Amino acid sequence: MIKSLQSAAKTKDKNRITIGKVGAAHGIKGEMRIIPLTDFTERFRTMKEVMVGKELLHIESCKFHKQYVLLKFAEYPRRELAEALTGRMLTIDRSEAAPLEEGEFYTFDIIGLKVLDPEGVELGTVENVLRTGSNDVYQARRPDGGELLIPALKAVVKKIDVAGGSMVVDMPEEISAGKREDEGADGHAH
């Protein structure tokens, strides 16, 4: 299985990665609920600073509460001040991204890749990564506007070239043709 990790999305600045979004204030001392947009929530424990919107903020404390990360920023010591951060995105430099194992890719690196068959014929462009539980599914848009669902399995995805902007897939005929296995060439069940 090929694993794509959330770690949110690339921002407009290709060198920055979004890792969270500021939610509501928590308590009266300026802590803010952060909605993590990363598979690596443990990163928050060791962070000393983070870009929040266009502002570099220094982290005074970090706690975990339910599905949230609670961060207190030195520049926003009171709840009333910190509430101004609600809705802003937390970003880090691409160089700070968690290292990946071989065969793992960030979702934001997969989205936008051209999908090619083994002969180099373009099948579409990846628009989304669906997380199904067992394996991811790459949702691609065909050149004719149709949808192509690609299981993120080594048996199907033969090569991912993030730098080259493409992936090579060898789709089983019944999937790539959009037919069910029990249909004949005429499209009727047999």
Provide a compact summary of the structure.
The chain is mostly beta strands and 190 residues long. It has helices spanning 43-46, 79-82, 107-110, 173-176; strands at 3-5, 16-26, 31-36, 49-52, 55-65, 68-73, 89-93, 104-106, 114-116, 122-131, 136-141, 147-151, 157-161, 166-169. It folds into 2 domains: 9-96, Beta Barrel (Elongation Factor Tu (Ef-tu), domain 3); 111-176, Roll (SH3 type barrels).
How would you portray this structure in words?
The protein has 2 domains: 9-96, Elongation Factor Tu (Ef-tu), domain 3; 111-176, SH3 type barrels (Roll), CATH 2.30.30.240. It is mainly β and 190 residues long. It has 4 helices and 14 strands. A hairpin with a 2-residue loop joins strand 4 (49-52) and strand 5 (55-65). The protein is elongated, with a radius of gyration of 21 Å. The strands form 3 sheets. Strands 2-3-6-5-4-7 form a 6-stranded antiparallel barrel. The chain has a 6-stranded mixed beta sheet with strand order 12-11-10-9-14-13, with no helix packed on it. A two-stranded parallel sheet has the order 1-8. It starts with a strand and ends in a 14-residue tail after the last helix. The longest helix has 4 residues, at 43-46.
Write the layout of secondary structure elements.
Blueprint: E1 3-5, E2 16-26, E3 31-36, H1 43-46, E4 49-52, E5 55-65, E6 68-73, H2 79-82, E7 89-93, E8 104-106, H3 107-110, E9 114-116, E10 122-131, E11 136-141, E12 147-151, E13 157-161, E14 166-169, H4 173-176
Parallel strand pairs: 1-8, 9-14
Antiparallel strand pairs: 2-3, 2-7, 3-6, 4-5, 4-7, 5-6, 9-10, 10-11, 11-12, 13-14
